[in-house]
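Review form for a predicted model. The reviewer records the input and the model, then writes brief findings.
Reviewer: anonymous (R2)
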Amino acid sequence: MEGLLLAEALRPLEGRLPLARGLWRFPDDRTAALPLTRREGGASQVLWILSRPPAPWLALRPGAPPDGAAGSPFQELLASRATGPLTAARQRGLDRVVELDFAASEGFVRQPAVTLVVELTGRNANLVLLDEGRTILGVERVVLRGRNRYRELRPGVGYLPPPPYDKIDPRTASRERLLAALHDQPLTRVRGILDGIGPELGNALAVGCEVAPGAPLQGRALERVVDALPALAASPASWLERAGRVTGLEEQRRLARRQRAERTLAGARRRELEVARKRLQDLERARDLGSRAGEVRGEADLLMAYPAKAPAGSARVALPGFDGVERELVLDPRLDAFGNARKRYDRARRLERRAERAERERPAAETALRQAEEALAQLPSLSDEELVARAAGLVEARRKRQRPAGPGVRFAGPHGFEVVVGRNARENDAVTFALARSLDLWLHVQGFTGAHVVVRAGGAEVPFDTVLFAARLAAGFSPARHSDNVAVDYTLRKNVWKVKGQPPGAVRFSHQKTVYVTPARDAAGATGEERS
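Model under review:
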Protein backbone atom coordinates (compact mmCIF):
# COMPACT_ATOMS: atom_id res chain seq x y z
CA MET A 1 0.00 0.00 0.00
CA GLU A 2 1.53 3.30 -1.07
CA GLY A 3 2.20 6.02 1.49
CA LEU A 4 -0.33 8.59 0.23
CA LEU A 5 -3.08 5.97 0.14
CA LEU A 6 -2.21 4.97 3.71
CA ALA A 7 -2.34 8.60 4.85
CA GLU A 8 -5.77 8.97 3.24
CA ALA A 9 -7.00 5.80 4.95
CA LEU A 10 -5.94 7.17 8.36
CA ARG A 11 -7.42 10.63 7.78
CA PRO A 12 -10.90 9.76 9.23
CA LEU A 13 -9.24 9.05 12.59
CA GLU A 14 -7.71 12.52 12.93
CA GLY A 15 -9.16 14.42 15.90
CA ARG A 16 -11.47 11.54 16.85
CA LEU A 17 -9.21 9.45 19.05
CA PRO A 18 -9.46 7.79 21.49
CA LEU A 19 -12.15 5.43 20.19
CA ALA A 20 -13.91 2.60 21.95
CA ARG A 21 -13.63 -0.69 20.17
CA GLY A 22 -15.18 -4.12 19.89
CA LEU A 23 -13.55 -7.52 19.71
CA TRP A 24 -10.97 -8.43 17.09
CA ARG A 25 -12.24 -10.52 14.19
CA PHE A 26 -9.97 -12.59 11.92
CA PRO A 27 -11.54 -13.65 8.59
CA ASP A 28 -8.31 -15.50 7.67
CA ASP A 29 -4.76 -15.98 8.96
CA ARG A 30 -3.46 -12.67 7.52
CA THR A 31 -6.56 -10.43 7.91
CA ALA A 32 -7.67 -8.61 11.08
CA ALA A 33 -10.81 -6.51 11.55
CA LEU A 34 -11.46 -4.24 14.57
CA PRO A 35 -14.82 -2.45 15.12
CA LEU A 36 -14.41 1.17 16.29
CA THR A 37 -17.12 3.36 17.87
CA ARG A 38 -17.10 7.16 18.23
CA ARG A 39 -17.53 8.62 21.66
CA GLU A 40 -20.52 10.71 20.59
CA GLY A 41 -22.40 7.58 19.58
CA GLY A 42 -21.89 7.88 15.84
CA ALA A 43 -21.98 4.97 13.42
CA SER A 44 -19.31 2.37 14.01
CA GLN A 45 -16.61 1.64 11.50
CA VAL A 46 -14.25 -1.28 11.03
CA LEU A 47 -10.48 -0.98 10.83
CA TRP A 48 -9.31 -3.59 8.31
CA ILE A 49 -5.68 -4.76 8.22
CA LEU A 50 -4.52 -7.18 5.53
CA SER A 51 -0.85 -8.12 5.97
CA ARG A 52 -0.54 -10.71 3.22
CA PRO A 53 2.24 -9.99 0.69
CA PRO A 54 2.61 -8.73 -1.98
CA ALA A 55 -0.35 -6.32 -1.74
CA PRO A 56 -1.03 -5.51 1.96
CA TRP A 57 -3.40 -2.69 2.87
CA LEU A 58 -5.21 -0.90 5.68
CA ALA A 59 -8.69 0.61 5.38
CA LEU A 60 -11.48 2.09 7.48
CA ARG A 61 -14.89 0.91 6.28
CA PRO A 62 -18.45 1.25 7.63
CA GLY A 63 -20.49 -1.77 8.64
CA ALA A 64 -19.97 -4.77 10.85
CA PRO A 65 -17.00 -7.15 10.60
CA PRO A 66 -17.53 -10.79 9.64
CA ASP A 67 -17.19 -13.55 12.20
CA GLY A 68 -13.78 -15.12 12.51
CA ALA A 69 -11.72 -16.46 15.40
CA ALA A 70 -7.95 -16.23 15.76
CA GLY A 71 -6.29 -18.58 13.32
CA SER A 72 -2.62 -18.09 14.21
CA PRO A 73 -0.59 -17.70 17.41
CA PHE A 74 0.03 -14.02 16.64
CA GLN A 75 -3.69 -13.37 16.19
CA GLU A 76 -4.36 -15.02 19.56
CA LEU A 77 -1.74 -12.76 21.15
CA LEU A 78 -3.21 -9.68 19.48
CA ALA A 79 -6.74 -10.50 20.64
CA SER A 80 -5.59 -11.07 24.22
CA ARG A 81 -3.19 -8.11 24.62
CA ALA A 82 -4.56 -5.27 22.42
CA THR A 83 -7.82 -4.94 24.35
CA GLY A 84 -7.94 -1.26 25.37
CA PRO A 85 -9.32 1.73 23.43
CA LEU A 86 -7.47 2.90 20.31
CA THR A 87 -5.69 6.08 21.44
CA ALA A 88 -3.36 6.97 18.54
CA ALA A 89 -2.61 6.14 14.91
CA ARG A 90 0.75 7.44 13.63
CA GLN A 91 2.37 7.34 10.23
CA ARG A 92 6.02 8.39 9.97
CA GLY A 93 6.01 10.89 7.11
CA LEU A 94 4.54 9.00 4.18
CA ASP A 95 6.21 5.72 5.06
CA ARG A 96 4.20 2.53 4.67
CA VAL A 97 4.34 1.89 8.43
CA VAL A 98 1.56 2.73 10.90
CA GLU A 99 1.71 2.51 14.69
CA LEU A 100 -1.61 1.93 16.47
CA ASP A 101 -1.58 2.59 20.23
CA PHE A 102 -4.00 0.72 22.49
CA ALA A 103 -4.48 1.92 26.06
CA ALA A 104 -4.36 -0.35 29.08
CA SER A 105 -7.57 -2.22 29.83
CA GLU A 106 -9.06 -2.89 33.25
CA GLY A 107 -10.75 -6.26 33.44
CA PHE A 108 -10.50 -9.54 35.28
CA VAL A 109 -6.82 -9.46 34.26
CA ARG A 110 -5.36 -6.00 33.65
CA GLN A 111 -3.61 -5.66 30.30
CA PRO A 112 -1.00 -2.90 29.97
CA ALA A 113 -0.86 -0.55 26.98
CA VAL A 114 0.57 -1.96 23.74
CA THR A 115 1.43 -0.71 20.26
CA LEU A 116 0.62 -2.57 17.06
CA VAL A 117 3.09 -1.75 14.28
CA VAL A 118 1.56 -2.37 10.84
CA GLU A 119 4.30 -2.63 8.21
CA LEU A 120 2.60 -2.57 4.80
CA THR A 121 5.87 -2.87 2.90
CA GLY A 122 4.96 -5.10 -0.03
CA ARG A 123 6.66 -8.49 0.05
CA ASN A 124 8.07 -7.73 3.52
CA ALA A 125 4.69 -6.89 5.07
CA ASN A 126 4.46 -7.73 8.76
CA LEU A 127 2.65 -7.04 12.05
CA VAL A 128 4.59 -6.44 15.27
CA LEU A 129 3.15 -6.06 18.79
CA LEU A 130 5.21 -3.95 21.24
CA ASP A 131 5.00 -3.31 24.96
CA GLU A 132 5.32 0.15 26.52
CA GLY A 133 9.13 -0.10 26.43
CA ARG A 134 9.12 -0.82 22.65
CA THR A 135 10.14 -4.46 23.21
CA ILE A 136 8.60 -6.95 20.81
CA LEU A 137 5.91 -9.10 22.42
CA GLY A 138 5.06 -10.98 19.24
CA VAL A 139 5.52 -10.80 15.51
CA GLU A 140 3.42 -12.27 12.73
CA ARG A 141 6.45 -13.28 10.64
CA VAL A 142 9.73 -13.71 12.50
CA VAL A 143 12.79 -12.19 10.76
CA LEU A 144 16.22 -13.28 12.02
CA ARG A 145 19.68 -11.81 11.45
CA GLY A 146 20.51 -14.44 8.89
CA ARG A 147 17.78 -13.06 6.64
CA ASN A 148 18.01 -9.34 7.40
CA ARG A 149 21.34 -7.92 8.53
CA TYR A 150 19.81 -4.51 9.34
CA ARG A 151 17.31 -5.69 11.95
CA GLU A 152 15.65 -8.76 13.40
CA LEU A 153 12.03 -9.11 14.42
CA ARG A 154 11.44 -11.66 17.15
CA PRO A 155 9.94 -11.64 20.65
CA GLY A 156 12.17 -10.23 23.37
CA VAL A 157 14.27 -7.79 21.33
CA GLY A 158 13.82 -4.04 20.96
CA TYR A 159 11.87 -2.91 17.91
CA LEU A 160 13.84 -1.20 15.14
CA PRO A 161 11.72 0.36 12.37
CA PRO A 162 12.56 -0.07 8.66
CA PRO A 163 15.60 1.93 7.53
CA PRO A 164 14.98 5.67 6.94
CA TYR A 165 15.14 7.30 3.52
CA ASP A 166 15.35 10.80 2.11
CA LYS A 167 12.52 11.71 -0.27
CA ILE A 168 10.48 14.83 -0.98
CA ASP A 169 7.06 15.09 0.63
CA PRO A 170 4.70 16.20 -2.20
CA ARG A 171 2.25 17.64 0.33
CA THR A 172 4.64 20.24 1.75
CA ALA A 173 7.35 20.83 -0.89
CA SER A 174 7.30 24.09 -2.83
CA ARG A 175 6.44 24.16 -6.52
CA GLU A 176 9.97 25.29 -7.38
CA ARG A 177 11.54 22.36 -5.54
CA LEU A 178 9.23 19.89 -7.24
CA LEU A 179 9.98 21.36 -10.67
CA ALA A 180 13.71 21.08 -10.07
CA ALA A 181 13.52 17.54 -8.66
CA LEU A 182 11.36 16.13 -11.49
CA HIS A 183 12.98 17.93 -14.43
CA ASP A 184 14.15 15.45 -17.08
CA GLN A 185 13.00 12.53 -14.88
CA PRO A 186 10.48 9.96 -16.19
CA LEU A 187 7.45 9.15 -14.05
CA THR A 188 8.72 5.58 -13.80
CA ARG A 189 11.38 6.94 -11.41
CA VAL A 190 9.04 9.10 -9.33
CA ARG A 191 8.93 6.55 -6.49
CA GLY A 192 12.62 7.19 -5.82
CA ILE A 193 12.10 10.98 -5.65
CA LEU A 194 8.69 11.68 -4.08
CA ASP A 195 7.57 10.19 -0.79
CA GLY A 196 4.31 8.22 -0.70
CA ILE A 197 4.05 7.62 -4.45
CA GLY A 198 4.73 4.17 -5.86
CA PRO A 199 4.10 2.52 -9.22
CA GLU A 200 0.29 2.58 -8.98
CA LEU A 201 -0.02 6.27 -8.12
CA GLY A 202 2.77 7.04 -10.58
CA ASN A 203 0.72 5.36 -13.30
CA ALA A 204 -2.42 7.21 -12.17
CA LEU A 205 -0.47 10.49 -12.37
CA ALA A 206 0.67 9.63 -15.91
CA VAL A 207 -2.89 8.83 -17.00
CA GLY A 208 -4.41 11.90 -15.34
CA CYS A 209 -1.80 14.26 -16.78
CA GLU A 210 -1.64 12.52 -20.19
CA VAL A 211 2.11 11.97 -19.89
CA ALA A 212 4.03 8.95 -21.17
CA PRO A 213 5.46 7.19 -18.08
CA GLY A 214 8.87 6.63 -19.66
CA ALA A 215 9.33 10.07 -21.25
CA PRO A 216 11.53 12.68 -19.48
CA LEU A 217 9.42 15.43 -17.91
CA GLN A 218 9.98 18.79 -19.57
CA GLY A 219 8.05 21.95 -20.42
CA ARG A 220 4.25 21.76 -20.18
CA ALA A 221 4.28 18.06 -19.27
CA LEU A 222 6.46 18.80 -16.23
CA GLU A 223 4.21 21.69 -15.17
CA ARG A 224 1.05 19.57 -15.51
CA VAL A 225 2.52 16.88 -13.27
CA VAL A 226 3.74 19.32 -10.60
CA ASP A 227 0.42 21.20 -10.61
CA ALA A 228 -1.46 17.90 -10.19
CA LEU A 229 0.52 16.73 -7.17
CA PRO A 230 -1.54 18.63 -4.52
CA ALA A 231 -4.76 17.08 -5.85
CA LEU A 232 -3.15 13.65 -5.95
CA ALA A 233 -1.94 14.03 -2.36
CA ALA A 234 -5.39 15.15 -1.22
CA SER A 235 -7.34 12.29 -2.83
CA PRO A 236 -5.08 9.53 -4.16
CA ALA A 237 -7.84 6.87 -4.22
CA SER A 238 -9.93 8.93 -6.65
CA TRP A 239 -6.92 9.19 -8.98
CA LEU A 240 -6.60 5.43 -8.99
CA GLU A 241 -10.29 5.11 -9.81
CA ARG A 242 -9.98 7.53 -12.72
CA ALA A 243 -6.95 5.53 -13.90
CA GLY A 244 -9.15 2.45 -14.11
CA ARG A 245 -8.45 0.68 -10.85
CA VAL A 246 -11.31 -0.18 -8.48
CA THR A 247 -10.36 0.31 -4.84
CA GLY A 248 -13.29 -1.51 -3.21
CA LEU A 249 -12.49 -3.88 -0.37
CA GLU A 250 -13.70 -7.07 -2.04
CA GLU A 251 -12.13 -6.10 -5.34
CA GLN A 252 -8.76 -5.53 -3.68
CA ARG A 253 -8.95 -8.92 -2.02
CA ARG A 254 -9.98 -10.57 -5.29
CA LEU A 255 -7.08 -8.96 -7.13
CA ALA A 256 -4.64 -9.98 -4.40
CA ARG A 257 -5.85 -13.60 -4.56
CA ARG A 258 -5.57 -13.65 -8.33
CA GLN A 259 -2.08 -12.12 -8.28
CA ARG A 260 -0.85 -14.67 -5.75
CA ALA A 261 -2.30 -17.59 -7.70
CA GLU A 262 -1.04 -16.30 -11.05
CA ARG A 263 2.45 -15.71 -9.65
CA THR A 264 2.57 -19.24 -8.19
CA LEU A 265 1.42 -20.86 -11.43
CA ALA A 266 3.62 -18.67 -13.63
CA GLY A 267 6.71 -19.64 -11.64
CA ALA A 268 5.90 -23.34 -11.99
CA ARG A 269 5.13 -23.02 -15.71
CA ARG A 270 8.37 -21.14 -16.35
CA ARG A 271 10.32 -23.88 -14.61
CA GLU A 272 8.54 -26.51 -16.71
CA LEU A 273 9.32 -24.50 -19.83
CA GLU A 274 13.01 -24.26 -18.90
CA VAL A 275 13.20 -28.00 -18.24
CA ALA A 276 11.51 -28.75 -21.59
CA ARG A 277 13.92 -26.47 -23.45
CA LYS A 278 16.98 -28.03 -21.81
CA ARG A 279 15.65 -31.51 -22.55
CA LEU A 280 15.21 -30.66 -26.23
CA GLN A 281 18.71 -29.15 -26.34
CA ASP A 282 20.15 -32.34 -24.83
CA LEU A 283 18.40 -34.46 -27.44
CA GLU A 284 19.65 -32.26 -30.27
CA ARG A 285 23.18 -32.48 -28.88
CA ALA A 286 22.93 -36.29 -28.72
CA ARG A 287 21.69 -36.41 -32.30
CA ASP A 288 24.58 -34.20 -33.46
CA LEU A 289 27.11 -36.37 -31.65
CA GLY A 290 25.60 -39.43 -33.32
CA SER A 291 26.77 -38.11 -36.66
CA ARG A 292 30.37 -38.63 -35.42
CA ALA A 293 29.85 -42.36 -34.90
CA GLY A 294 31.05 -43.12 -38.44
CA GLU A 295 34.23 -41.09 -37.94
CA VAL A 296 35.00 -42.87 -34.64
CA ARG A 297 34.38 -46.29 -36.22
CA GLY A 298 36.68 -45.35 -39.12
CA GLU A 299 39.49 -44.60 -36.63
CA ALA A 300 38.94 -48.03 -35.07
CA ASP A 301 39.16 -49.65 -38.53
CA LEU A 302 42.51 -47.92 -39.12
CA LEU A 303 43.90 -49.24 -35.84
CA MET A 304 42.78 -52.76 -36.74
CA ALA A 305 44.44 -52.39 -40.16
CA TYR A 306 47.79 -51.14 -38.82
CA PRO A 307 48.21 -52.68 -35.33
CA ALA A 308 52.01 -52.71 -35.55
CA LYS A 309 52.12 -48.93 -35.91
CA ALA A 310 50.22 -48.34 -32.62
CA PRO A 311 51.94 -50.44 -29.95
CA ALA A 312 50.99 -50.20 -26.26
CA GLY A 313 52.44 -47.09 -24.64
CA SER A 314 51.75 -44.84 -27.64
CA ALA A 315 49.88 -41.64 -26.79
CA ARG A 316 49.59 -40.39 -30.35
CA VAL A 317 50.06 -42.03 -33.77
CA ALA A 318 49.79 -41.02 -37.45
CA LEU A 319 48.22 -43.66 -39.74
CA PRO A 320 47.58 -43.58 -43.50
CA GLY A 321 43.85 -43.24 -44.15
CA PHE A 322 41.94 -45.45 -46.58
CA ASP A 323 41.47 -42.35 -48.76
CA GLY A 324 45.21 -41.71 -48.87
CA VAL A 325 45.16 -38.84 -46.34
CA GLU A 326 47.20 -39.37 -43.19
CA ARG A 327 45.19 -39.36 -39.94
CA GLU A 328 46.58 -38.50 -36.49
CA LEU A 329 44.93 -40.38 -33.62
CA VAL A 330 45.07 -39.81 -29.85
CA LEU A 331 45.44 -43.14 -28.02
CA ASP A 332 45.17 -44.51 -24.51
CA PRO A 333 48.79 -45.47 -23.77
CA ARG A 334 47.68 -48.22 -21.40
CA LEU A 335 46.12 -50.14 -24.34
CA ASP A 336 47.52 -51.66 -27.50
CA ALA A 337 46.08 -51.03 -30.99
CA PHE A 338 43.31 -53.64 -30.58
CA GLY A 339 42.33 -52.26 -27.17
CA ASN A 340 42.13 -48.69 -28.52
CA ALA A 341 40.12 -49.94 -31.50
CA ARG A 342 37.69 -51.79 -29.23
CA LYS A 343 37.29 -48.64 -27.14
CA ARG A 344 36.39 -46.65 -30.28
CA TYR A 345 33.94 -49.30 -31.51
CA ASP A 346 32.20 -49.17 -28.11
CA ARG A 347 32.03 -45.38 -28.24
CA ALA A 348 30.63 -45.43 -31.77
CA ARG A 349 27.87 -47.83 -30.67
CA ARG A 350 27.02 -45.63 -27.68
CA LEU A 351 26.83 -42.52 -29.87
CA GLU A 352 24.54 -44.31 -32.32
CA ARG A 353 22.28 -45.63 -29.56
CA ARG A 354 22.01 -42.18 -27.98
CA ALA A 355 21.23 -40.62 -31.36
CA GLU A 356 18.55 -43.23 -32.03
CA ARG A 357 17.03 -42.72 -28.59
CA ALA A 358 17.13 -38.93 -29.07
CA GLU A 359 15.33 -39.29 -32.39
CA ARG A 360 12.62 -41.41 -30.74
CA GLU A 361 12.18 -39.02 -27.80
CA ARG A 362 12.34 -35.79 -29.79
CA PRO A 363 8.59 -35.67 -30.74
CA ALA A 364 7.55 -36.07 -27.09
CA ALA A 365 10.04 -33.37 -26.01
CA GLU A 366 8.74 -30.98 -28.67
CA THR A 367 5.18 -31.66 -27.52
CA ALA A 368 6.16 -31.01 -23.88
CA LEU A 369 7.81 -27.73 -24.88
CA ARG A 370 4.75 -26.63 -26.84
CA GLN A 371 2.40 -27.55 -23.98
CA ALA A 372 4.55 -25.63 -21.46
CA GLU A 373 4.51 -22.54 -23.70
CA GLU A 374 0.72 -22.78 -24.15
CA ALA A 375 0.15 -23.31 -20.40
CA LEU A 376 2.15 -20.19 -19.57
CA ALA A 377 0.44 -18.12 -22.27
CA GLN A 378 -3.11 -19.06 -21.18
CA LEU A 379 -2.73 -18.02 -17.51
CA PRO A 380 -4.10 -14.46 -18.01
CA SER A 381 -7.24 -15.86 -19.66
CA LEU A 382 -8.13 -18.23 -16.81
CA SER A 383 -10.94 -17.29 -14.43
CA ASP A 384 -10.19 -16.35 -10.82
CA GLU A 385 -11.68 -19.62 -9.55
CA GLU A 386 -9.65 -21.77 -11.93
CA LEU A 387 -6.43 -19.89 -11.16
CA VAL A 388 -6.89 -20.22 -7.40
CA ALA A 389 -7.86 -23.91 -7.67
CA ARG A 390 -4.85 -24.77 -9.85
CA ALA A 391 -2.46 -22.85 -7.61
CA ALA A 392 -3.85 -24.58 -4.50
CA GLY A 393 -3.43 -27.98 -6.15
CA LEU A 394 0.14 -27.14 -7.13
CA VAL A 395 1.03 -25.98 -3.61
CA GLU A 396 -0.52 -29.08 -2.05
CA ALA A 397 1.36 -31.39 -4.43
CA ARG A 398 4.60 -29.57 -3.66
CA ARG A 399 3.93 -29.82 0.06
CA LYS A 400 3.35 -33.58 -0.19
CA ARG A 401 6.61 -34.05 -2.09
CA GLN A 402 8.56 -32.03 0.47
CA ARG A 403 6.84 -33.43 3.56
CA PRO A 404 9.33 -35.58 5.49
CA ALA A 405 8.30 -39.18 5.94
CA GLY A 406 9.03 -39.01 9.66
CA PRO A 407 10.78 -41.59 11.80
CA GLY A 408 10.43 -45.31 11.29
CA VAL A 409 9.22 -47.73 8.62
CA ARG A 410 5.49 -47.45 7.98
CA PHE A 411 3.03 -50.22 7.18
CA ALA A 412 -0.73 -50.27 6.59
CA GLY A 413 -2.41 -52.69 8.99
CA PRO A 414 -5.21 -55.08 8.00
CA HIS A 415 -7.88 -52.71 9.33
CA GLY A 416 -6.35 -49.49 7.99
CA PHE A 417 -4.35 -48.49 11.08
CA GLU A 418 -0.84 -47.16 10.36
CA VAL A 419 1.91 -49.20 12.03
CA VAL A 420 5.29 -47.50 12.55
CA VAL A 421 8.47 -49.50 13.29
CA GLY A 422 11.66 -47.90 14.67
CA ARG A 423 14.89 -49.10 13.01
CA ASN A 424 17.47 -48.06 15.60
CA ALA A 425 17.73 -46.71 19.15
CA ARG A 426 17.31 -43.03 18.30
CA GLU A 427 14.47 -43.76 15.91
CA ASN A 428 12.81 -45.86 18.63
CA ASP A 429 12.82 -42.81 20.91
CA ALA A 430 11.35 -40.65 18.13
CA VAL A 431 8.62 -43.20 17.33
CA THR A 432 7.66 -43.65 20.99
CA PHE A 433 8.01 -40.16 22.45
CA ALA A 434 7.58 -37.80 19.48
CA LEU A 435 5.24 -39.60 17.09
CA ALA A 436 3.01 -41.76 19.26
CA ARG A 437 0.10 -40.37 21.29
CA SER A 438 -0.99 -41.56 24.72
CA LEU A 439 -3.78 -43.89 23.48
CA ASP A 440 -1.77 -45.42 20.64
CA LEU A 441 -0.77 -49.08 21.01
CA TRP A 442 2.93 -49.73 21.77
CA LEU A 443 4.70 -53.08 21.21
CA HIS A 444 8.17 -54.53 21.89
CA VAL A 445 9.62 -58.03 21.65
CA GLN A 446 10.01 -59.66 25.07
CA GLY A 447 13.52 -60.41 26.34
CA PHE A 448 15.44 -58.89 23.42
CA THR A 449 16.53 -55.49 22.22
CA GLY A 450 14.59 -54.47 19.14
CA ALA A 451 12.20 -52.14 17.43
CA HIS A 452 9.61 -50.01 19.16
CA VAL A 453 6.37 -50.54 17.21
CA VAL A 454 3.41 -48.16 17.42
CA VAL A 455 -0.11 -48.67 16.11
CA ARG A 456 -1.47 -45.17 15.50
CA ALA A 457 -4.99 -45.77 16.75
CA GLY A 458 -5.95 -42.23 17.76
CA GLY A 459 -7.94 -43.57 20.71
CA ALA A 460 -9.92 -46.12 18.65
CA GLU A 461 -10.12 -49.77 19.67
CA VAL A 462 -7.45 -51.82 17.88
CA PRO A 463 -8.70 -55.16 16.45
CA PHE A 464 -6.74 -58.23 17.55
CA ASP A 465 -5.74 -58.93 13.91
CA THR A 466 -3.92 -55.58 13.90
CA VAL A 467 -2.25 -56.41 17.23
CA LEU A 468 -0.92 -59.64 15.71
CA PHE A 469 0.17 -57.79 12.56
CA ALA A 470 2.18 -55.29 14.60
CA ALA A 471 3.55 -57.99 16.92
CA ARG A 472 4.94 -60.00 13.97
CA LEU A 473 6.72 -56.84 12.80
CA ALA A 474 8.11 -56.19 16.29
CA ALA A 475 9.50 -59.73 16.37
CA GLY A 476 10.81 -59.48 12.81
CA PHE A 477 12.73 -56.26 13.56
CA SER A 478 14.57 -57.81 16.52
CA PRO A 479 17.34 -60.39 17.17
CA ALA A 480 14.55 -62.97 17.57
CA ARG A 481 13.59 -62.74 13.90
CA HIS A 482 14.97 -66.24 13.15
CA SER A 483 13.04 -67.86 16.01
CA ASP A 484 9.52 -69.26 16.18
CA ASN A 485 6.75 -68.49 18.65
CA VAL A 486 8.30 -65.18 19.83
CA ALA A 487 6.76 -63.36 22.82
CA VAL A 488 5.79 -59.71 22.16
CA ASP A 489 4.52 -57.35 24.88
CA TYR A 490 1.98 -54.64 24.10
CA THR A 491 0.44 -51.80 26.09
CA LEU A 492 -0.83 -48.27 25.60
CA ARG A 493 1.80 -45.63 24.89
CA LYS A 494 0.83 -43.76 28.09
CA ASN A 495 2.21 -46.72 30.07
CA VAL A 496 5.71 -46.31 28.57
CA TRP A 497 8.27 -43.99 30.16
CA LYS A 498 11.98 -43.24 30.09
CA VAL A 499 14.21 -43.08 33.17
CA LYS A 500 16.63 -40.17 33.27
CA GLY A 501 20.12 -41.21 32.24
CA GLN A 502 19.03 -44.25 30.23
CA PRO A 503 20.61 -44.66 26.77
CA PRO A 504 18.60 -44.01 23.58
CA GLY A 505 15.90 -46.59 22.99
CA ALA A 506 15.82 -47.87 26.59
CA VAL A 507 12.38 -47.57 28.24
CA ARG A 508 10.23 -49.03 30.96
CA PHE A 509 6.56 -49.95 30.67
CA SER A 510 3.66 -51.41 32.63
CA HIS A 511 0.14 -52.89 32.23
CA GLN A 512 1.36 -54.98 29.31
CA LYS A 513 -0.16 -58.05 27.72
CA THR A 514 1.72 -60.67 25.71
CA VAL A 515 1.10 -62.48 22.42
CA TYR A 516 3.20 -65.19 20.74
CA VAL A 517 3.82 -64.78 17.01
CA THR A 518 5.98 -65.83 14.07
CA PRO A 519 8.35 -62.97 13.10
CA ALA A 520 7.89 -61.02 9.86
CA ARG A 521 9.70 -58.06 8.31
CA ASP A 522 7.13 -57.01 5.69
CA ALA A 523 3.39 -56.54 5.35
CA ALA A 524 2.86 -59.89 3.60
CA GLY A 525 4.54 -61.83 6.39
CA ALA A 526 2.81 -59.81 9.08
CA THR A 527 -0.59 -60.72 7.67
CA GLY A 528 0.35 -64.37 7.35
CA GLU A 529 0.21 -64.39 3.54
CA GLU A 530 2.33 -66.85 1.59
CA ARG A 531 5.36 -65.43 -0.17
CA SER A 532 6.98 -67.00 -3.21
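Findings: The longest helix spans residues 249-290.
Further findings: Residues 175-242 form one domain.
Recommendation: see findings above.
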